[in-house]
Amino acid sequence: MSLNIGNQYEYGREESDYGKVPMWDRVDEQYPSGVFVKVGGTYTVGKFIPAGTPVQIDHIGAEPKIGSAATAPTGLTRYDATVGSNGCTLTVVTRGAIYADRISGTTTTLSSTQRTALKERILFISEVSAD
Questions:
Q1: pLDDT at residue 6 above 90?
Q2: What sign does the CA torsion over 109, 28, 34, 118 have?
Q3: 15-42: pLDDT as tens digits
Q4: What is the average per-residue pLDDT within 69-92?
Q5: Distance, CA of 15 to CA of 57 (rounded, Å)
Q6: Radius of gyration over every alpha carbon of the chain, rounded to an integer in angstroms
Q7: Among the listed residues 97, 93, 83, the one whose alpha carbon sits nearest the alpha carbon of residue 39
Q8: Alpha helix (H) ranges present in the chain?
Q9: Residue 73 and residue 115: Cα distance in Å, rounded?
Q10: 62 exposed, middle or buried (CB, 10 Å; 0-12, 13-18, 19+)?
């Protein structure tokens, strides 16, 4: 006699960053729909935008200000991104906790003005002793 149990085992998907050091300790909130970066000007094909880069966006669909141009950032990029022939999208974390010393390990630096603008929304965790 054959017994068909079907869908007995639980399964799912997991994300893993093999070979990468995670920048974020936790992500509590992201900007809705992400941000689109058009090709042109500063953002040419192949331009790398590292995780932890400040992004300022005024409303959904608006052209973002990225890096040092983001004087009052909305948040920080969650993942690394590279501009392709059609541009690229960025996931922007608006609330969460990031390892601050790992940001400085990239080509991104945050000004004191940018950190102040994000102070109540992004927790910067230091891993390096102040000694």
A1: no
A2: negative
A3: 555 556 788 999 999 998 889 999 998 8
A4: 93
A5: 27
A6: 18
A7: 83
A8: 100-103, 112-118
A9: 9
A10: exposed
